[in-house]
Amino acid sequence: MLKIVLITGISGSGKSVALRLLEDAGYTCVDNLPVRFLHEFIGSTRESELERVAVAIDVRSPGELAELPDVITSLRAMGTAFRVIFLDANDHTLIQRYSESRRRHPLTDRLQKGGKSPSLQECIDTEREMLAPMREQEHVIDTSDLTPGQLRAWVRDIVQADRAPVVLTFESFAYKRGVPGDADLVFDVRCLPNPHYDRELRPLTGRDEPVAKWLAQFGSVETMIDDIASFIRRWLPLYMQDTRNYLTVAIGCTGGKHRSVYVTEQLAKRFSDHSPLLIRHRNQPPPDIP
């Protein structure tokens, strides 16, 4: 069965990294495909008996983005296995990336007025407005504080997940770096006992057994996990009835290293019967990419 992955999102958010990962994973990749050619392209891939195809579409396709949600809907109605990944990042990160790469924003020329070029912020704001319909209905990855390795790992996990009712993701993060923009539900566990103040535990993470044992001894930690799990079990069926395909539950502590990681791992164990299930640790080193 033909599987299509569409990569879209804000310029500078990592679409090239995601597309290269998919290419390395055996996908036939096409970058900057005009929306009007999407139906024709997918038809040709079926005739060629390709099994995995990835397409990148963004603001470089002028005047057609408004049609993209309807095109995706019609393709899915025809039985096409269509997975959409929307990459985003906060304005500060995007501006920093453009400064480091010294590249121009793709909307620079189109937004010129009277020979005057727009500012980078104006380009970003316009792009967000143009892509808003896509961001609202598809799976979002906030790449603001992700390394390229983490982004590759996350995209790989998404495309390997079967298209089940809802892809449930548990994600740990550090409040000192901000709440991730891809979170649907956010839980704050900074009130729990902190292993950071134990010199022996400080270098470890919530995935290490000594930290897990230390946290498990506190009744407040177990109660917090029970309450979050109970909330999710109560409301997950309604999320599954919604049109969404993904639900991301973000667990935050100060540094994203101990408490949030441990709670995320424990929640994932409690929901191990849900498939597909993804686990992410935003502020931990990414796994090796094969």
UniProtKB/TrEMBL annotation:
Binding site residues for GTP: D58, V59, R60, S61
Example of a GO MF term: GTP binding
Family annotation (InterPro entries): P-loop_NTPase (IPR027417), RapZ-like (IPR005337), RapZ-like_N (IPR053930), RapZ_C (IPR053931)
Pfam family, one: RapZ-like_N
Domain RapZ-like N-terminal: 3-162
Superkingdom, natural source: Bacteria
Stretches assigned to the RapZ C-terminal domain: 168-283
Chain residues that bind ATP: G9, I10, S11, G12, S13, G14, K15, S16
Alphabetical keyword list: ATP-binding, GTP-binding, Nucleotide-binding
NCBIfam families cross-referenced by the UniProt entry: PRK05416.1
Name of the molecule in the record: RNase adapter RapZ
Organism of this sequence: Allopusillimonas soli
